[in-house]
Amino acid sequence: MTSFEEAETEETVTCLHLTFYHPCQEEKMMFRCLNFCKREQVRADETAKFGRDSSVCRYNLMDTRVSRIQFSLQFFRKLHTSEYCFEIKNLSKKTKLTVNQTELGYLNKIDLPWKCIISFGDYQILAEIQEGESVDYFETHLHLAEAPILQERCLPSLQPIPENGISPSFFLSQGKSPTEIDENEL
């Protein structure tokens, strides 16, 4: 047997990709203490805390409007499954935290969806979980967004298209409304 055949099987590591955005990031440099260069390992039994207190928080946001400890992420395995997840908890008494459409008050927590937007104040963080198998640690990979993650988008309303393939908006643009015809009249 070769050393390749005898080598231990590599296990994949769960990676939490976090993309940060703030409209004043260029002037205020609130992300200057975050490491955007490489993946960082976090022990599975540690809680990853985000906030402005560098003695408590692993990820520091340099902004006086951010709470000492804004929120935390805890890595865990779901009961009776092999699925690994993250739990997010709001640790700010003053600022509500929003995960997608769910608003979290102080000490509220929820499971982090595999892809979501975390927001508080003017901060927007896109969180994406890349699944892995490691039970000892997970990794974080931080990214910096140059444009807002959350934008008001004017999406056309999704209306069903009838079987004849003609969209109701076609009739509205013609100044007419669709009329119902009995199939016997055709």
Automatic annotation (TrEMBL):
Residues 49-121 form the FHA domain. Keywords: Cytoplasm, Immunity, Innate immunity. It is found in: Cytoplasm. One of its GO terms (cellular component) is cytoplasm. Its main location: cytoplasm. GO terms for biological process: innate immune response; positive regulation of canonical NF-kappaB signal transduction. Coiled coil: none annotated. The keyword Cytoplasm applies. Belongs to the TIFA family. This is TRAF-interacting protein with FHA domain-containing protein A. It comes from Erpornis zantholeuca. The gene is Tifa.
